[in-house]
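Thread amino acids onto this structure.
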């Protein structure tokens, strides 16, 4: 099919008929709605126009055509038609000697790629995604699909390199306009998410957008409170500030996580990374960290000193030095005991998580994980042999029972858990049951057989061993080594 036939014209059609057919199709194929269709239409028009001009019989009529007023690209200017009137013999007109060697094509438009990227970033920084989209649609340079693709990739590469402040809606408008928002555009999805978060946070942290940032944070702070918290994170790390704020690590960490949506690495470079890492570690309840131990030690020391000072102040009002000393020691001992309880809790948390992991999760020291409860029961027997009927001898089986029941409950088949609710309260029944069931009636002191107390943790441990017998870690590892 020839280009003229593609427009529905015959082989003898002139340029005037071609222009009419082109104008009719151009109404249905707009460059902003169908860029690829417009490119095909324009290419076919250029080929058809060249075919018309190669026909000598149609050249005089087309040269005298008055369609040079704003017609499509490739038409001869009116001055050229006036300078070369049609010849009497019907041959194609010759160009005057004065215009010989003159390029009559319209000058090529030079596209400033760096300038365009700078303008696009400046408009995106305003935060109006709709205005940015209209500005991109109105640029005639992007009727060329090749230029549009090159400009889009250059702009996105500059965004990755500079990461300027920009809301996520503007980044989405840029990606959609340049058809780079889908999975086949060649983006790394994780890198694109990091870029979007970083630019959105940098845009929100600008002073002009603090009100919008306050509206996003929950509970919503005032602008003054927000500025004070941001100044704390931007200030250099100092131990004096840590000691002064030892009571509030959880609050500071919650602010950081809310501000960054759980990605503190997205904060700009002006924020002190050491301080942010310290406050996050101090508030992390899933791990034993140096920052957390330091915060606990500061609180422990502060509670002990505060108790002693309070006791001295109360006794000083009674004007009794001896009583003041005893009261100060007593309140100080209370604070010290609270610190010991906190240390015990800190040690218990990782032990409980490590001991209660599912069997399909690899752990360190699998044999110790499996035999921890029997080892604690053996330790309890040894303590009872050295210190019979002491409170310390009862602490070890209580801890063993608690760990065994917690492990059995968490790893119990989920469909049978409603029938195993006794696991939750069983540790608190160890001592009463032991006193009621195992009391020697002939012993006025109410003694009982110590080994019988250990039946509770051993029963829970055996029940868990039975339910997990098919895929024990040690058995799986041994079978893998055998294979």
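Threaded sequence (483 positions):
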């Amino acid at each position: 099919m020839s280009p003229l036939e593609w427009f529905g014209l015959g082989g003898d059609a002139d340029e005037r008929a071609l222009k009419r057919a082109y104008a009719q199709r151009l109404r249905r194929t707009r460059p902003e709605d169908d860029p690829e269709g417009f490119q095909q239409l324009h290419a076919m028009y250029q080929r058809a126009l060249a075919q018309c001009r190669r026909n000598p019989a149609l050249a005089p009529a087309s040269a005298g055509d008055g369609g040079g007023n704003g017609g499509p690209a490739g038409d001869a200017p009116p001055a050229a038609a006036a300078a070369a009137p049609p010849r009497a013999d019907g041959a194609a007109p010759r160009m005057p000697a004065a215009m010989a060697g003159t390029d009559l094509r319209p000058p090529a438009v030079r596209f400033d790629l760096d300038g365009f990227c700078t303008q696009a970033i400046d408009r995106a920084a305003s935060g109006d995604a709709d205005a940015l989209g209209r500005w991109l649609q109105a640029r005639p340079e992007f009727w060329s699909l090749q230029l549009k693709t090159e400009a889009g990739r250059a702009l996105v590469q500059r965004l990755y390199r500079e990461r300027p402040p920009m809301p996520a809606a503007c980044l989405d408008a840029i990606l959609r306009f340049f058809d780079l928002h889908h999975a086949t555009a060649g983006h790394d999805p994780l890198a694109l998410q990091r870029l979007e978060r970083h630019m959105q946070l940098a845009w929100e942290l600008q002073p002009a957008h603090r009100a919008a940032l306050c509206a996003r944070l929950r509970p919503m702070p005032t602008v003054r409170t927000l500025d004070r918290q941001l100044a704390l994170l931007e200030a250099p790390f100092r131990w004096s500030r840590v000691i002064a704020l030892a009571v509030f690590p959880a609050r500071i960490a919650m602010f950081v996580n809310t501000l960054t949506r759980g990605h503190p690495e997205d904060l700009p470079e002006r924020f002190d990374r050491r301080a942010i890492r310290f406050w996050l570690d101090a508030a992390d309840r899933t791990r034993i960290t140096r920052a957390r131990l330091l915060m606990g030690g500061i609180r422990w020391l502060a509670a002990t000193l505060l108790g002693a000072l309070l006791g001295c102040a109360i006794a000083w009002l009674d004007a009794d030095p001896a009583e003041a000393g005893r009261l100060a020691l007593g309140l100080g001992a209370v604070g010290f005991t609270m610190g010991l309880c906190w240390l015990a809790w800190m040690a218990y948390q990782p032990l409980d998580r490590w001991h209660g992991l599912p069997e399909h999760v690899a752990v360190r020291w699998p044999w110790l994980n499996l035999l921890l409860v029997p080892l604690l029961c053996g330790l309890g027997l040894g303590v009872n042999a050295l210190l019979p009927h002491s409170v310390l001898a009862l602490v070890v089986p209580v801890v063993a029972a608690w760990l065994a029941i917690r492990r059995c409950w968490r790893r119990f088949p989920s469909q049978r858990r409603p029938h195993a609710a006794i696991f939750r309260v069983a540790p608190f029944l160890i001592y009463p049951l032991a006193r009621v069931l195992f009391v020697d009636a002939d012993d006025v002191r109410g003694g009982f057989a110590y080994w019988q107390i250990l039946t509770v943790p051993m029963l829970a441990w055996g029940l868990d061993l039975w339910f997990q017998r098919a895929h024990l870690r040690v058995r799986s590892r041994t079978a893998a080594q055998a294979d």
